[in-house]
Amino acid sequence: MVASSAWGGSRQKSLNYRSLVWARVFQGVALAPFESLVNDVVGDLYFVHERGFRMAFTNVCLFGAAFLTPVCVGFIASDDSLGWQWSFYFLSIFMGAGFVLLFLFLPETAYQRPRYLQIDFNVGPVPFHDPVPVPAKQSFLHRLAPFSGRKTDESFLKLLFRPFPLFLQPAVAWGCLMQGVIIGWTVIVGVILALIFLGPPLFFTVKDAGKMYTAAFIGSILGLVLAGIYTELVTRFLILRNGGQYEPEFRIALVIPTLLFSVIGLYGFGIAASEIDQYGWIVIEVFLACITISMVMGATASAQYLLDAHRDISIETFTCLIIFKNLFSFVLAYYAYQWVLERGFKRMFVTFGCIEVGICLLSVPMYVFGKRNREFFYRHDILKLARLR
Question: Which residues are listed as membrane-spanning (predicted)?
């Protein structure tokens, strides 16, 4: 990330569009593992009842905080002494500092426990075994080692290709649609937002257009708070109704407010953007905040469920989510301007809203049959994945 970001902002005369594209490709390769690993770390560090707010906070950091970037870039790009290149340079500088912090203060969180202690992995009760001695605490220098041994007995090739057949697993397919699609809507909004504010009738400057992303960031913070409160309250209520027993499917209940805010945000944004001279920029900002609230909630619901329901393959499931999300977002961003010109804002976002309603409704069978899916997955070792030893 440090090298590719510096490459992307290079002022050399030989820099051209192709060079910038390849710099962005290497940025994507460098950053993609972070998106899957940071979610899995939440599962490594916290018990099930502690993950709700922390998972919501993680998704705000991953996706919501990204909306604060255009605000900063607007100021950078409009400054004659800096220019857009410094958006890459600053990224390289911060990633360099982040690397030092990561190296010194983030130890390995994965730990290979005995089978009977894997409480997240078990569908049924596991017989008790004799206690295993607690290993000695590692020294600081030992924790700095970039490699501390394998954390699984699975073969390398199996781990390498495991994410691809997982797309056929119902829970993973649901998670990809739930998270990838709602994030895709925010991506296409980010692509066309400048088109709305820079053109007629508002004619905002680049700096002012950048400020309009503040509403999305505020929406992500509201989504964090609402998702954390809703998840904890509803999960506790469902546990009480279930005789004190927790089920991962309880996390899916967060889809209810996700559906509410996404419908309000997508439908409202399309209508307001198509008649901006009538509604003005403030109304658009409110609906944009609603879209990002639903994005945080939807991403949190899918991530929490997959982490709790399929803890042993959580890295692979998050890899599937990233692959789907990136491909879907790329398609949306690639055709965004063409769709706006052909269909207009209203028709396009009403269509998006209807698609989102359909995807959210898929949560009903996922909630009803999720436990059966988990039991079948573990008992029959579906597609030869994740055999428990």
Answer: 56-76, 88-106, 171-200, 212-231, 252-273, 279-306, 318-337, 349-369
